[in-house]
User: Fold this.
Amino acid sequence: MTRLITDVAEAAALLRAGELVAFPTETVYGLGADAQNGRAVAGIFAAKGRPQFNPLICHFASAEAAFAEVVADDRARQLARRFWPGPLTLVLPRRPTSQVDLLAGAGLDTLAVRVPGHPLALELMRLVDRPVAAPSANRSGQVSPTTAQHVLEGLSGRIAAVLDGPPSEVGVESTVLDLAAGGAALLRPGGVPVEAIEAAVGPVGRPLPLAAAAATRSLRSPGMLLSHYAPRLPVRLEAQEVAPEEALLAFGPHPLPGAGTMWNLSPAGDLQQAAARLFAGLRWLDAEGARLGLWGIAAMPVPGHGLGAAIQDRLTRAAAPRDS
Ligand code: AMP
Ligand code: MG
Assistant:
């Protein structure tokens, strides 16, 4: 049963215990999880029924807390002073010391961070005192919720609680600005107009129109789509046996015999655990494989239901042919 609660301390305690809690922000209601807890983060994708692991925004009580997880340059600090708390998300290089689970960032070397403007959300972040990963609190494919009632309509029975609050005032998601690649690029228009950002820090690159983007090389290479982390070693899907030169990405109680280097996503065959261990596993196999001079990664089949669909999607991207 999903409970509608009004006590922000209770919401914080649930989040710290690894539960999923929806909470009001000024943009839309967010579906929060402890970003350091891979199982809880995997729960977000399961509850939303998301068929893909896209990177989630991490929420903080202050710029100082956010910049403990990412490397902020002068522009980032300036934008934080000008627009936080508020509907602006900054994508910045992740610190090597960051404890944010890899699944929350979809395995990328960057993290999206934000300090929400809503007083209840801020109080919640302060009490949780850890990064909180939160996409919009709706089922995948449905519109973003701006009231607690909307959240319950979509997610009742799938999450622990909804922290009740007033309707979201902004009603659209945060503006997402990528500062990690040198320049400043708008990844998603949102609550802070791009003109206001440009007034603060100068020109911002706009996203390519879809047709132009489709013609670029990056989109023709599905392995790099959305510039997701892709292992350097080739990935072979649906493996029924493993070669001596291959590392094994296993799933379930019966890993293929003969693998010298193996990462089991979930010995118990649990898809939520597998999701939580996927990006860490790919990185580890990639590094171990390179160290040992292996030729590739053999991935055992993973069932396609529930989170399995997102795991398969990610593995298919990792296995897609690449130019280099
Ligand atoms: P939502 O799931 O509605 O919170 O949306 C999150 C948005 O932030 C999506 O458009 C993501 O693609 C984007 N995003 C989050 N993290 C990153 C990242 N590390 N790099 C690029 N985009 C990101
Ligand atoms: Mg959404």
Observations:
- Confidence is low (pLDDT under 50) at residues 214-227.
- The domain at 3-216 is CATH 3.90.870.10 (DHBP synthase).
- The pocket of adenosine monophosphate (ligand 1) is lined by residues 54-57, 91, 105, 108, 110-112, 135-136, 173, 176, 178, 187-188 (CB under 6 Å).
